[in-house]
Amino acid sequence: MAMGKLATIKRAVLELTSTFNTSDPYTLCELLEIEWRKVSLPGHVRGLYIPVRMHNKRYVLIHKDIVPSWQRFVCAHELGHHVLHGDLMKGTHIDTFTISSTKDHTEFEANAFATFLLMVDQHLQFPFPLDAVASASQKKDSRELAQILRDRTAEYC
To answer: Does the predicted TM-score (pTM) go above 0.90?
Structure first.
């Protein structure tokens, strides 16, 4: 993924968080009228973003049996699908394969969105260096992005 695409995703996150004055993915879903629920999902499925065009509704489903920090990441990831990919999505899910997949750019972009969103500080600034995210993205390794997020979150909370 080019630095330009990451910069575009970062701008989308900063625009969203400054518009709504929050970086909490659950609150953002509510403000964007996206219904979210923690539910039982098949073992490998961590979350789903489901736009229902006929009823103009959107849903984020999060696996209730994963740890809360992953639930938050999954919610942010699915919100990323909404913001970045709009209603072109047809119920894409994040699972143990797609979280590390290099084949689907939409999954990687949603992971980058989630990483940026969860790193925005209380002043709605992004203190994490773009080059570190770019470095991980050049390897197309979503697990590295998630690890960066987990390792560095404590520094900014």
So the answer is: no
